[in-house]
Amino acid sequence: MSSKPALRPPAGVSRPAAGRRQSSVVVALLVALVASLFGASPALADELPPVVPAATVSISGDASVGQTVTAEPGTWGPDGVTLAYTWFADDVPVDGQTEPELALAPDLLGRALTVRVTGSADGYAPASKDSDPVTVAAGTLGSTPVPTVTGVAQVGSPLVAETGTWDQGVTVSYQWLADASPIPDATASRFTPHAAHRGSTITVEVTGALTGYASVTKSSTPTSAVALGDLVEGVPTITGTARVGQTLVGQTGTWSPVPGFTYQWFVDGKPISDATGTTFVPQSAHQGKAVTFEVTGTLAGYESRGATTAPVVIGAGAYSSTPVPTISGTARVGTTLTAATGAWAPTPAFSYQWYADGVAVTGATNSWFTPQAAHRGKRLSVSVTSTLSGYPTTARTSAQTAAVAYGVFTAAPTPTISGTARVGVTLKAVPGAWSPGATLSYQWRADGAAVTGATNSWFTVQAAQRAKRITVTVTARRDGFTTATRTSAATATVAYGVFTTAPTPRITGYPQIGWTLTATAGTWAPWASLSYQWKANGVVIKGATASTYKPVSADFAKRITVTVTAKRPGYTNGVRTSAATIPVTKPFTTIATPTISGTTRVFSTLTAKPGYWYPAPSFGYQWKRNGAIITGATSSTYRMVEADYGKRVTVTITARRTGYTPVTRTSAASATILGPAATLSGDGMYRVGVSLGAGTYVAPGGDGCYWERRSYAGSDLDGIIANDLSFGGRRIVTISSSDAYFVTEDCGSWTRLAKLGTPSTSFGQGAQRVNIHIQPGLYKAPGGDGCYWATLSGFGGTLDEIIDNDISFGGAQYVQIESGFVGFDSADCGTWVRLSS
């Protein structure tokens, strides 16, 4: 047999006595359960006989909006029965409709119409009978005239739809069509054909609509094919002065309707290439020739039209202003001069040539010119030449400047010194931005005297400069320019140097009598000679001036430091003292290796025994699993967890005592940790919280394994919270802290559930904890006669914990076990094998 979901027996049915499961008791349980689920109440002796309804109640008539239908009640008994009517639409009473006839209003369209006939008579109980439903259909409109179209079928000419006279209340809508195809957005009573409709016939569809009635659409007779529209051209003109260089503007005149335009300018009747806009500027080649402007109007659906202006004759171009150029700026080497052409009219293109004492300067053809050293003492001028098509080339030359003078630096800043005036510090000269650019040289000075060789932009102060003031002189040179010199302000008096890196020394080694301590001075910068002095509690230890030191008995309980002194010429001595060690200690005279006692099973507790030490210390503990630290396991006892299964445990103790060197020792490894010990070993009733605690437990199960969770002691069925009866395979139960008792029979020993090893991908019948016993995934089993399986959200044994289940009597079974499921149970299905994850 298979394990099925636990059912709670109805009240008054006892469960089997302990150790017995007779078939008669099982049958009695099932019979009582069926009776409780399906039993009926006995009839009352004084009930009235009911009215006898007709065999059929029906609805006659046309079930469409606007029509009237009639209830056909049939024959009722006994004689003299009074009949009442209630009409329903979609099972909702039709308000106020209690007559045999019903006029179908528009709001009933599409709804399921029924009538309920209720018969009543003295001495009889009333009875009702409902008709079969009929669906209310749409009504039919009466007057639906064919529309007509008035107007001329021509592009741009409006057409009008005449609808005729429809039934009162009907709303009409329109759809115009071209060659029987609907025209987008043409849904008004008027429509003006567009170019796309030329050659097409136009019709209009008029649709009449009334709530509750079927809409009706009528189409007009097609028009004749839509003809081209008439385009009325305007009279174009030319505005502006007809002269070379002047802009002429073409005007289109007034056209109807307004088309798209293209343009073409002509000279002596010949089209001008690229002159296809509304404006045209005559060139010198057009002087004395006749110019016309042609406009062509084009609009889709209309015949194109063209129109040309009267000709105008182009006159010659002429400058109205040719001023003499001027030169702005000072005639000095390195200073830029600028030529100003003046305001020529019209504006031509210009070319330039600069002269020095009347001789053209090679390459000086820009509007600006910067005199070089070679031009010093000469007078400068500039010639400007204009070029414009259709106009004569014209040159103008400026007056000469004064003789070009020596250049002067426009920016000659006083240098500054960055950095601190201190031995060993590098100072930097900041010359500032000279303009124009110059070649700079440097000379550093101490108290005004030049420092030999100090001609770089930077200077590192030496011991010889201590107590003096430092300056730097910057000299700027450039061809054609007057040499300039600038000297910085003096620094403060040069101070003693300080070490840029002065590390605090460190002491390595443990401060125990007889053990060596080593001073690590670190790296001083700049380099210095170092000396050492060891101290005990801040007092100098005579003769202890090496980089190492061994504490002696006199140092016991004292803190050791080392002072490092650094010396270098021109520098202040550097002194650094290390942090103090802990007080100097003694060693323990007797040391022991710890041992471990206790049962090496998951959920059992191990105890660390440190052994005999002298003098007696205090101990710290750290438990380890296969040599790795177990986080938080720092007491003298350790309760083993699932992660310890199959591994070996050790404990490391650290002994401490004031004045003594701490010592660490590690125990031998325990035996390999086994699974949990059994919580319950035999059949019976156990008190929760006394014999076992709340939690999830597992048992091997067996033929006829029975368990139950109880809310109180005894065998009363009402005390059962949940139960289970199985005939093979592992059993799992979760006991709540609110449970009072737990009963078990023929299930074997119950052990607290623990994750031991790797979950399997194949298994037989029985309960399985997902991610502990089995891995999630898609599984297949061969099935069998009475194969039962269930996916579970818990192991409390309640029906609410069943996610899905099935019982079958042959054929393969498939089930998807999700990672989020708590468990899976099966019986008589064979071996389940995972097909995929």
Describe the protein in words.
The chain has 837 residues and is mostly beta strands. 2% of the residues lie in helices and 37% in strands. It is flat.
In short:
With 837 residues, this protein is an all-beta fold.
Features:
mainly beta, 67 strands, 837 residues, flat, 5-stranded antiparallel beta sheet
Question: What's the count of strands?
Answer: 67
Gross geometry: flat
Uncertain parts: 1-45
* Rg, Cα atoms, Å: 58 Å
Estimate the helix proportion, in percent.
Answer: under 10%
What is the first-to-last residue Cα distance? 30 Å
With helices defined by DSSP (H or I, 4 residues minimum), what is the helix count? 1
Derived structural class: mainly beta
The biggest sheet amounts to: 5 strands, antiparallel
Mean pLDDT over the residues? 91
- Tell me what portion of residues adopts beta-strand conformation: 35-45%
Describe the protein's topology.
Elements: H1 23-38, E1 58-60, E2 68-72, E3 82-89, E4 92-93, E5 101-103, E6 112-120, E7 127-130, E8 134-135, E9 148-150, E10 159-162, E11 171-178, E12 181-182, E13 190-191, E14 202-209, E15 216-219, E16 237-239, E17 248-251, E18 260-267, E19 270-271, E20 279-280, E21 290-298, E22 305-308, E23 312-313, E24 326-328, E25 337-340, E26 349-356, E27 359-360, E28 368-369, E29 380-387, E30 394-397, E31 416-418, E32 426-430, E33 439-446, E34 449-450, E35 458-460, E36 470-477, E37 484-487, E38 506-508, E39 517-520, E40 529-536, E41 539-540, E42 548-549, E43 560-567, E44 574-577, E45 595-597, E46 605-609, E47 618-625, E48 628-629, E49 637-639, E50 649-656, E51 663-666, E52 678-680, E53 684-687, E54 695-699, E55 703-710, E56 720-727, E57 731-735, E58 741-745, E59 750-752, E60 762-763, E61 766-769, E62 777-781, E63 785-792, E64 802-809, E65 813-817, E66 823-827, E67 832-836
Antiparallel strand pairs: 1-2, 2-5, 3-4, 3-6, 6-7, 6-8, 9-10, 10-13, 11-12, 11-14, 14-15, 16-17, 17-20, 18-19, 18-21, 21-22, 21-23, 24-25, 25-28, 26-27, 26-29, 29-30, 31-32, 32-35, 33-34, 33-36, 36-37, 38-39, 39-42, 40-41, 40-43, 43-44, 45-46, 46-49, 47-48, 47-50, 50-51, 52-59, 53-58, 54-57, ...
